[in-house]
Design goal:
It is built from 17 helices and 8 strands. The protein is of the alpha/beta class and 442 residues long. The chain has helices spanning 3-32, 38-62, 74-98, 106-134, 147-158, 174-181, 197-207, 216-224, 234-240, 246-266, 268-281, 334-342, 349-354, 368-377, 394-398, 405-421, 424-436; strands at 138-143, 164-169, 186-189, 212-215, 287-293, 299-305, 359-361, 390-392. A 4-stranded parallel β-sheet has the order 2-1-3-4, with helices on both faces. A two-stranded antiparallel sheet has the order 5-6.
């Protein structure tokens, strides 16, 4: 993440925290018609401070710190409203069911929610319209003529909240005249140009002068969270993708197995209830067992609760043979629709994790028949098999339901981003944002 991006997010978070405390102060003034006493302030300060942590966490989960969302459009206001509703519900639960701080602020809480709604709306609208765009922006020079470079230029121009002030030059010789005169701070070069000795010689002197140099694929990745597969050659993957995080993988496997086992035990009443409801609402088996391709191309059996009608003796819905599933597939049963919407149909995959076949986070496992087809039509598709597949993943969060070769290509770009950048923190972020999917659609 670039410094300009981090600065914008920090300013947003600080602003939100200030708004919450200002709203609390105004709430007490409105409620008591005067400046509140130290005793009243102390009585409210500690519980509300704990509560504010959950408000900021909800803002993060819903996506209010994602720069691509910081525009005053319908998508932003939908997420903003969702965050406030969830936070208000948490506030009610916090004060009436959990805490024991000696206050049950019915009137105060109502006033607070109204005040924070008004102030947060003013602050966020102002930030989206003015503040975020006036903050210092990194002056970046895009070098090259590829489609990725053109996409980056248009994307940056249309989204000043990303924190970049773009310029472009098509020829290498232009760098010498452009960089000094326009005070360029970052140079983004197409990956294949980096192999050109002439380019290396020109760029080297700017690198030693403090100008940041990276390839356009990395900048594309930083902004969009995916790897531009169509623009890359094998050497790029050798340099950036094909390495193992051995320590991370070593500790991750036993921790996931222990956590999956614990969750299976804790959730066993829910698993039994879902199994009974499936049996009562439609004919067929409770579980669907499908062959999927996993790490290093090894096939395994994936378990899911059945959510479709059973057209075949094995309980599958594929009377016409193997086919892509659709987001609004007519084969889905009414209860199956609920299971898919809440992702409860995925719960049996806990047993795949216990068996070491899948992880909580990773590329979505595909069926072997589709894998063979996609390997022939999509370059580097087999690279997604370098890691264990997951119940949830970066591609699922950032791209719509996949139901075609074109969708598989787009999702591959997100999967490669995950494989390159995978870490404990990225996994935690993906899990947190998966929770967001229960409330907000991307």
């Amino acid at each position: 993440m670039q410094p300009a991006t981090r600065v914008k997010q920090i300013i947003l978070a600080i602003g939100d925290v200030l708004i919450l405390y200002i709203s609390l102060a105004l709430t007490l003034i409105i409620r008591y018609q005067q400046m509140p006493s130290a005793e009243i302030i102390n009585l409210h300060l500690r519980p509300f401070t704990i509560l504010f942590f959950f408000w900021i966490l909800v803002f993060y989960i819903v996506g209010l710190y994602e720069l691509r969302r910081l525009k005053n459009n319908l998508d932003f206001f939908k997420n903003f409203g969702t965050a406030l509703v969830i936070s208000a519900i948490i506030s009610v639960i916090f004060f009436y069911l959990i805490t024991n701080y000696g206050i049950t602020p019915k009137t105060n809480l109502l006033i607070f929610i109204v005040v924070v709604l008004i102030l947060e709306y003013i602050w966020r609208s102002a930030y989206n319209n003015f503040i975020g765009q006036q903050l210092p922006q990194t002056k970046v020079l895009l070098v090259g003529k590829s489609e990725t470079t053109k996409q980056l230029l248009n994307l940056i121009k249309q989204n000043p909240q990303y924190g970049y002030n773009p310029d472009v030059c098509n020829e290498i010789e232009e760098i010498v005249s452009v960089v000094p005169g326009r005070r360029i701070e970052m140079i983004a070069i197409e990956p294949e140009l980096k192999q050109n000795p002439r380019v290396a010689a020109i760029v080297y002197k700017y690198l030693t002068a403090g100008v940041e140099v990276l390839d356009t694929a990395t900048l594309y990745e930083n902004i969009l969270g995916k790897v531009p597969v169509a623009e890359l050659e094998e050497y790029w993957f050798l340099e950036t993708i094909l390495h193992r995080r051995r320590l991370y993988d070593f500790f991750r496997l036993p921790l996931e197995i222990i956590l999956a086992f614990a969750l299976a035990v804790v959730l066993s009443p829910l698993l039994i209830l879902i199994a009974l409801l499936i049996k009562l609402t439609s004919a067929g088996p409770i579980l669907i067992k499908q062959k999927r391709t996993g790490e290093l191309g090894k096939d395994f059996t994936l378990y899911k609760f059945r959510s479709m009608i059973a057209n075949n003796p094995d309980g599958s819905a594929e009377a016409q043979g193997i086919q892509w599933a659709q987001e609004k597939d007519p084969r889905i049963t009414p209860f199956g629709s609920f299971l898919r919407h809440t992702h409860l149909d995925e719960l049996p995959q806990l047993f795949n994790i216990i068996k070491g076949e899948t992880s909580f986070v990773g590329p979505r496992p595909e069926r072997p028949e589709f894998v063979e087809q996609l390997k022939k039509t999509i370059p580097y598709y087999e690279l997604r098999q370098l890691v264990k597949p997951g119940v949830t993943g970066w591609a699922q969060l950032n791209y719509r339901y996949g139901a075609s070769v074109e969708d598989a290509f787009e999702k591959l770009q997100y999967d490669l981003y995950y494989i390159k950048n995978r870490s404990l923190w990225l996994d935690l972020g993906i899990i947190i944002k998966t929770i967001k999917m229960f409330f907000v659609k991307n």
